[in-house]
Amino acid sequence: MEELKRILSVYPKRMIDLTRLEELTKSFVHTYEEFADVILQLEKDQILEMVKSKGRTARTPSLAYQYRIQKSVLASSHHQELQIYRNKLHPAILLDEYFRIDPVVWKQDLPFIEKIDHYLKAFGFPNEPVPAPERSFELVHDEKWIVEKGGKEVLERIGLYERLQIIPVSEPLMFAVNPGQIHRENQFHLIVENKTTYQGLLPALVDTEFSTLIYGSGKVIIKSIEQFPAQYPVEANHEFFYFGDLDREGVSIWYSLTKRQSVKLALPFYIACLAQEPVKGKGYQLENREALQAFLTNFSKLHQDKIQKLLRLGTYYPQEILKSKQLQAIWRESDWKALI
Q: Residue 100 phi/psi, 5° resolution?
């Protein structure tokens, strides 16, 4: 029954002959009696309406030779089911997309949506990003679901992919090299969160004491940093510095990164940001208290108070608040050895 409803909901015509109905159901209906029961039930449910001018068969039970498909009734049934689930699932799970697409997609996604609903009600939203396979196992007990089995698309349909803090499967690390520094015993590496800041700093790289400038690409760096030894197989004492947006997410990215790689804050950039006027926005971001406390310990009491206040007021400092020339001057002129 449900399979035939799905077929009828996407059938390209409004009229359908009895012989065509038999063809469409032969893979799951095996006798005439079973077939007649299904069709008569759809008549009763007003999903199939007899075309009176075509008449009915002489067989028992008797069926119409042709039917009109009442797609509005089919849609109504599907929409009613969505409304029921909308009321019982976690409020963050959005079902709007399923009102517009083939009902079969809803049926395929539902078992996974129910598992995600259970996870959210039990644990809430995660505070830290983790690689896709790890989050996938937490959600549906299948580490391959997000990347290999369509899970990313399901999470995007229900509006949760970004909120579940998923790090894509490890991407290659993107960085530029300063050839004048690669033979030093002690080497510095600067990681920046955003592409604009990377491009703004790049021209100054050869004028600094840093061996590389690394593009973090938001949360991607948390996983891609593991590629560094393979992509930069230089034996040295490596010191990493990080500069990202001064908002809750930027703080969380740095904190998650520290759990995989020892990395210090590039304090001269942050202190320069704090001398500017903050920007409205990002108030919706979730706070990771542990990450924020670890972040704040790098600053003076005056700066700690200012950072806490600006986040509380729903403001932040994007990296782009510092212009290219200012970024380059800070990078060239700061005493980075003093931060080690």
A: -110, -15
